[in-house]
Amino acid sequence: MTRTTTSAVGAGSGAAASRTQQAGRGGALVVGSDVPAVASGGRPAAGADERLAAGADGRPEISAVRWVDGFRIVRGRPLPLGATATATGINFAVASATATRMILVLLDPERGSVLGEIPFPDDYRVGDVFAMTVLGLDPDLVHYALRVDGPAHAPGARFDPDALLLDPHARLLAGGERWGERPRYRGKVLGAAGSDFDWGEDRRPRLPAADLVIYELHVRGFTRDDSAGVDAPGTYAGLREKIPYLRELGVNCVELLPVFEFDETENTHRDPTTGAPLLNSWGYSPIGFFSPKTGYAADPAEDGAARELKELVKALHAAGLEVILDVVFNHTGEGDHRGPTLSFRGIDNATYYLLTPEGYYQNYSGTGNTLNCNHPVVRSFIADCLRYWAVEYHIDGFRFDLASILSRGTDGSPMENPPLLEELAHDPVLADCRLIAEAWDAAGLYQVGSFPAYGRWMEWNGRYRDTLRRFLVGRPDSAGELAARLVGSPDLYAGRGTGASVNFVTCHDGFTLADWVSYDHKHNEANGEDGRDGGEDDASWNHGHEGPTDDPEIRALRGRQTRNALLLLLMSNGVPMLLAGDEFGRTQQGNNNAYGQDNEITWVDWAAAAGHTDLIRFVRRCIDFRLAHPVLRRAAHPQGQTPPGWQYPEVSWHGARPWEPDWSPGSSLVAMMLHEKADDGRTDTVFVAANAHAEQRIVTPPAAPAGTGWHLFADTGRAQAAAEAGEEPAWAGPELTLTARSAVVLVARPDGSEDT
Prior knowledge:
Layout: E1 49-54, E2 60-68, E3 71-75, E4 82-85, E5 89-95, E6 101-107, E7 114-119, E8 125-126, E9 129-135, E10 143-149, E11 172-174, E12 186-188, E13 214-217, H1 219-223, H2 236-240, H3 243-249, E14 253-256, E15 260-262, E16 286-292, H4 304-318, E17 322-327, H5 344-352, H6 376-392, E18 397-400, H7 419-426, E19 434-437, E20 458-460, H8 462-472, H9 479-486, H10 490-493, E21 501-504, H11 513-516, H12 552-571, E22 575-579, H13 606-611, H14 613-628, E23 651-654, E24 669-677, E25 683-691, E26 697-699, E27 708-715, E28 736-738, E29 742-750
Parallel strand pairs: 13-14, 13-22, 14-17, 17-18, 18-19, 19-20, 20-21, 21-22
Antiparallel strand pairs: 1-2, 2-3, 3-9, 4-5, 5-9, 6-7, 6-10, 8-9, 10-12, 11-12, 15-16, 23-24, 24-25, 25-29, 26-28, 27-29
């Protein structure tokens, strides 16, 4: 969820009501600015020639060449939409069902000044697509924008013929290369130089869902701090330098917060201490859906952002890591009626946005507007966009922000059979891509476990997060539900398998793990919203002191709780997701909505990693253990049955004594044994026990399967909290002492008495 603000406009909306963009130096024009149209001398020359021109696909065709404002144009191809370099020039194709006039504005790449304005001739229109090819244009020597006009009183229309607009299908955007500076966006044509990237032998890892260990990170924040020790901090290239760390940790999939072009300067809030403007650092406010964020490029010149992102993906694949993009199709950076007119609003407002009968923006996203996702035109746009990233950038999957909005119909109500979700699930180009839904929205639609999956969609399991947190801090009525979460939430995903559940304890929204054990309340004053923003209940506990402390008992208890959360997460069936830096105690100083903090609050402090090598080692060993034991990575939910020839059920539940679980409202003990027997007769058995009580508990595990004995993998109550996978020391038994608020994992290993 993108919880950015409680104001009507929203920090994620662009909050640009007060922004008045002006022409840049040297006559540069700013997309969205209110400036007079430049006069065009572009009447078609009388007796236009018949010339041999090339279509958008490069094939020759006969078309009449016309001269407009000194440029030669011919009839264009309506597909693909956007600007496409051809053998003879550049083909431009823009769709609008309501526009009556479309003008192509050619801009100088250096200054942004107008080189010429070319109206799309009416007879070049194909259906609702304005299409023409401008002959002889060099993609490296021209940028472009659009002017669009239409009936002023059409329902929902917000045409502004004086505004320069971005092409929604622009593959690259210029003007936002300098992070933190107000962008002057212009469309940039992806020429031959942008499409000849050498992918070599790049192959998607295509890991089974059950084998995934996802690591969520912010491209800039991950290496922006000096402590990262990289040559290009805060960039795609800087992240590439950290791949050895990711491999050593053991994760095999990175989920990147938004990398679509966005305007980080749109935030209208200010630092309450210094008065300095805050940024929208997270990027959940897209401007260019096909364009990578240029401010993340170490070398933003030409196609630097595209090239560096591809180099990052290629390097991650070579290291065995998948790449998932966090994508935002629920709203845009244009905000509500007070926001800037940048693209969709000025091209076809009523098609792209959900509107009230009075023409105002529906706000199911909490950020000012809501995309009309199940309109056929918007569905096509979203599918085109995802295919482009999958094909052009070799992306392995997508996590959809506030995905429940994608299930709303054109009237805003939830649909039983949303065509967009079905289309994406069955799209042949996306067949190898993961589709992960944040299955709720900002208007109260909560679909965790009921999101329309079509056999394909995975979900961020918000109930996993909430249940695990509630249990570990000792809230009542949590033990029984935790049992379901540990085995992949069969109550939510019956028939869909454990891979449908992306389990997590923390993510970019809310507290980091270190803050979850250190704060009872959010501390968001730095966001400039008087503490009103962010969630109200993170099910957190400060363990006796709010914030940092030197008290050794509190620090020890916080350390146990941190390890408890990580251990249970990585021992659960389903797909685990870690938040970057949780493995070494990253803090946001109690800020649970740090979208506007481009500073030490959100930058990963790698010095902390040097001070928490024990916790990093613990996480690495838990990941190794998980990958070593198929019983923790089951694709199907265990049913509690005992198959023929097995000594134990697939899963069994226990308490202080074997086979006697306590599901009472006040229970603070959950113990499970996962067991399976392979076709070759080998068994894989793991016993997990978690004590959320303030006192120690004595637990007697069931006997290990015949021919094996229990060995101790992890005990969060001990200084050496986890062993190396395969080197677990024997456990004498028969009783297991669980320290107050601790968790223990035993594994059955052959004892040499018989062949197993």
